[in-house]
Amino acid sequence: MKHPFHLKAVWNGGRNSEGQIEAGGLKTIISIPQEMGGPGTGTNPDEMLLGAASTCYLITLAAMLERSHITPQGLTLESEAIVDVTNNVFTYERIVHKPLIVLQADATEADLAKAERLAHLAEESCMISRALAGNVSIETRPIIVKEGLIS
């Protein structure tokens, strides 16, 4: 079974202008980021690629935890992307996912270990991570804690 996705885009001018995109539930302004000499309005391809990789990873992790009968008390994610600019060539080098999985206070060491294994496996199983494989390095640095032990 195939699932098509569609996007409509409009660009209003030259390099330092802005445009709009619409795809399903996503409707936003786009431009070149300020850090790369653009106007920095709305979002940009770098943020959207990070968003795609991060949300795919987070949803995949949540599904894998559920299938393994682990119900986290909290599941959050911080992700960072590194883009290198050398000789005016932009290269999306790396994404680092830092999930925080908070388990119940009575979770066992085996539960903690299983959650950590799943945090790494989710990155390998995510469709977007697989699409980026060989082009963008993706790291996962999970933090797994018991409820009440977060500072």
The end-to-end distance, rounded to whole angstroms, is 45 Å
- CATH fold naming of the largest domain: GMP Synthetase, Chain A, domain 3
What count of domains describes the coordinates?
2
Q: What portion of the residues fall into strands of 2 or more residues?
A: 25-35%
Computed Rg: 18 Å
Count of DSSP-assigned helices: 3
Shape: elongated
The amount of helix comes to: 25-40%
Which spans have pLDDT < 50 for at least 5 consecutive residues? none
* Derived structural class: alpha/beta
Topology as a string of helices (H) and strands (E):
EEEHEEHHEE
Give an account of the 3D structure:
About 20% of the residues are buried. Helix 1 (about 45-65) packs across helix 2. This protein folds into two domains: about 1-45, N-terminal domain of TfIIb (Single Sheet); about 45-145, GMP Synthetase, Chain A, domain 3. Helices cover about 30% and strands about 35% of the residues. With about 150 residues, it is α/β, with parallel strands linked by helices. Strands 4, 5, 6 and 7 form a four-stranded mixed β-sheet that branches. It has a three-stranded antiparallel β-sheet with strand order 1-2-3, with no helix packed on it. Strand 1 and strand 2 (about 20-25) form a beta hairpin. The protein has three helices and seven strands.
